[in-house]
Design brief:
Distance between the termini: 38 Å
Number of strands: 5
Strand order of the largest sheet: 2-3-5
Helix content: under 10%
Shape: elongated
Order of helices and strands: EHEEHEE
Bound molecules: iron/sulfur cluster
CATH topology: Alpha-Beta Plaits
Largest sheet: 3 strands, antiparallel
Length: about 110
């Protein structure tokens, strides 16, 4: 087994976080509750489909991008606990070891169908 260089801490690998895009409403609760500010998302408004006849037109936010920066993530699970739509969950897959710092900023979307 390869040992880390003397004087350095061994690399710690964590479970990742999975996002079910079909459940995410872009409410940004996870973004504001994350103590490390490492979740970023973008969304856009679209008309709510299938409104009853005569109903006033309304819009809802549709998710475009969602990233977690595992370089600053504390693995505290607050985002998972706070999501009111159960769109986030722990994933047994480990965060891949990065080659460069930017590799730690990832889209956690997982297909669930
Ligand atoms: S596990 Fe904690 S630090 Fe990491 S993204 Fe979720 S709330 Fe933020
Ligand atoms: S709290 Fe849940 S539903 Fe709201 S933006 Fe985050 S993942 Fe999506």
């Amino acid at each position: 087994m390869t040992q880390p260089p003397e004087g350095t801490a061994p690399a710690v690998r964590h479970s990742s976080i999975a996002l079910d895009r079909g459940l995410c409403t872009s409410c940004v609760i996870c973004v504001v509750e994350c103590p490390a500010w490492c979740i970023h998302l973008t969304s856009h408004p679209e008309p709510v489909p299938d409104l009853p006849p005569g109903a006033r037109m309304r819009t809802h936010q549709v998710l475009d991008t969602f990233t977690i920066d595992y370089g600053t993530c504390l693995y505290c699970g607050i985002c998972i606990e706070e999501c009111p739509f159960d769109a986030l969950a722990w994933d047994a897959r480990l965060v891949p070891p990065p080659v460069v710092r930017a590799d730690l900023v990832t889209d956690p979307s997982r297909p669930t169908d």
